Amino acid sequence: MDAAADLKALEARLLTEIDNAATLAALDDVRIAALGKKGSVSELMAGIGKVPPEEKKAYGATVNTIKTRVSDALAARKAVLDSAAVDARLATERADVTLPVRLGPLSEGRIHPVSQVFEEVVEIFADMGFAVAEGPDIETDDLNFTRLNIPPEHPARQDHDTFYLNQTGDGARMLLRTHTSPVQIRTMMSQKPPIRIIAPGRVYRIDSDATHTPMFHQIEALVIDEATHMGHLKWVLEEFCKAFFEVDDVKMRFRASHFPFTEPSMEVDIDAAAIGKPGRWLEILGAGMVHPNVIRNCGLDPEKYQGFAFGMGLDRITMLKYGIPDLRDMFSADLRWMKHYGFLPLDIPTISGGAAG
Ligand code: DAH
Questions:
Q1: 289: CA distance to ligand 1 center in Å?
Q2: What is the reported pTM?
Q3: Is the pLDDT assigned to residue 357 strictly greater than 60?
Q4: Domain, as residue range, for 166
Q5: Could you tell me if the CB of 262 is within 6 A of ligand 1?
Q6: Per the domain annotation, does 353 fall within a domain?
Q7: Which residue's CA is the closest to the ligand 1 atom numbered 2?
C-alpha cells in the first residue's frame, strides 16, 4: 500500500470510530487517539520531516484535510451525543405535574375542626368590624365573677363548677376561667368605647359526662357604644349564623333568660333547618344587653354607654356545622378521628376563599 492509501485508510477508520462512539466519553477517547499530542493524525503532522521535499506540499495538504474532516466529524458526533444525553435526562427526570401530590407530612397533618371553626368565626366577625381580644386561662375571681356582677355568695357562682387554684400569699384565689366573659371586663377596663371585640378561647368547668368536657371553647362578643340596642345584637347574630352555616336565611328564637351580667338576658336558638334538620330548635348561645353594674364596675358611665354581649359554645357550633356526633371525641387526640373530621392545612374552607373541595 502506498502512503496515500494509508492516509485514506486511516481517515476511514477514524470516521468509523467516531460514528460508532456511543457515549461522549468514548468519543473523547477517539478524539485523543486521533488529535491528541500523541494521536495518529498529530503524528502524521510530525512525520512531515521525513517526507521527500517535493512531496511535502501535497502531503501537508492531505494531512490537513484529514485533520479537518476528523475534527468536523467529532464536532458533529458530539452534537448528536449531547442532545441524546439531554433527551435521556429529560426522560428520567420528567415531572408529571398532573399527578396527585405525593403523600408527605403536609398531607398527614390535620387542622382540628375547633381550630378551623375558630378561624371561620374570627373571619366572619372581622368582616363586620370586630377585633380579636384575648385574656388568660388563669383568671382572678374578681374578673371571672365579681366585676361581672356576680359578687361572692351570689347564687350564680354555684352554676359554674369552678377549678380553683391554691390561695396566693395575699389570700387571693386564682381560678381557671369558667367562661370567656372576663375578657369583656379586661377590654372595658383598658379600652375606650366604641368597643367591638370578640374573644375566642378555652374555658374550664368541673364537669364531665356525655355532653360536657372539663375544658371546652367559647367565643365572647362585646359591643359598647353610645346608642347600641337589641336590634344591633339581633342583626349581628343573624348575619353571623347565615355566614357561618352558609345559608341565605336562618330562623332564630330569642328566649328570655337570666345572666347576672346582662339585662335583659336571653338564650338564642336556631332552627336546625340551617343544618338540614328543620323543625328542631338548637340552643347556641347566651346574650343580652350589658348590665349597667358591669359597665360601672369597669369605670365607664352606664348613663352614657351601653351595649350588648354574647357567649357562644364553639364546640357546639363546630359539631353542628360539621356533623360531629360526640363532644368527648373532639378532645381524645385520636388520630383516626382527626383524619376523618380534620382539615388539610392547604385545603381549608374560608369565607373569602370558598368551601374546600
Ligand atoms: N358567660 C356565659 C356562660 O358561660 C355565656 C354568656 C351569656 C355570655 C350571656 C355573655 C352573655 O356575654 O351576654 O354561660
A1: 11
A2: 0.70
A3: no
A4: 113-341
A5: yes
A6: no
A7: 311
